[in-house]
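Intended use. Records such as the tRNA N6-adenosine threonylcarbamoyltransferase entry shown here are meant for training and evaluating sequence-to-structure methods. They are not intended to support clinical decisions.
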Amino acid sequence: MRVLGIETSCDETGVAVYDTGRTGASGLLAHAVYSQIALHAEYGGVVPELASRDHVRKLLPLVRQTLAEAGLAPGDLDGVAYTAGPGLVGALLVGAGVARSLAWALGVPAVAVHHMEGHLLAPLIEDDPLRGRPEPPFVALLVSGGHTQLVAVEAIGRYRLLGETLDDAAGEAFDKTAKMMGLPYPGGPQLAKLAEQGRPGAYKFSRPMTVCPGLDFSFSGLKTQVLLAWRDSDQSETTRADIARGFEDAVVDTLAIKCERALDAAGCDTLVVAGGVGANKRLRAKLQAMAEKRGGRVCFPRPELCTDNGAMIAYAGALRLQAGQHEPAEVKVVARWDMATLPEVARG
């Protein structure tokens, strides 16, 4: 089954084709992402109306480009998958409208995909050459600009929320902290790059909510600590790098501590990490060391599949289409969508 995936939940236009008849990474026939970073940089954040308009401009050319790279014509597709939520409603409607129209014209089924399920399944697109593809049960850390969640994955489509952020997501905290220190948009990757030059231990910030039991997160207080440290410092480039390192270490340590607790709570030793912050080098190293210490395993998607992309939507949609799930012929999206309400995917 060859499935076209369309992702337009925020400020990336993503398109991909996944073929279930192939194994591992070879199933991803082609994928492309157009980022709107330059468009929104002037405003210091995503402007929903501008995001929607840019998806309108870029989506169809990207579909044509991706099909050409996959060596396919539209009539070769067996299904279409699209992000239906959560996300910006206007942006979601662009992708859903194109996906539903294309599916109707081709006479193939279309399936709505949960954006965070797409992220959760992204590490499963490619097989580990030594240990193969991770299979449930496992714990997933979904960590991005909009979400920070720990999820017990009992089966594909059967998810149990273990903990989530009570305020800012980890990626959002990265972006806002970077902005406070005058780094350019998007700030998160800039802060992580700057932290590589910082001295470990020069600034020591708290690891929020790690001294109390539970698996929820909170990063707003950490931002305040950084703001006070930056305000009272000499604001030199060296100090900026040291504060960035102290902030990154605090976030990474907090995520690692909570992940280990979640593995204990779920009674398993496999951790899957997805979302934009999953590309952070220090987080990857920390979680890898934690997994090795306990004799377990941690799985990441390749960095380009950590951020929003069509590949994860094509793959997640292909699993559901193979299981016989599809949507009626209507354009419907939701800004908020509880992943626990998704139906389980029957695996043959």
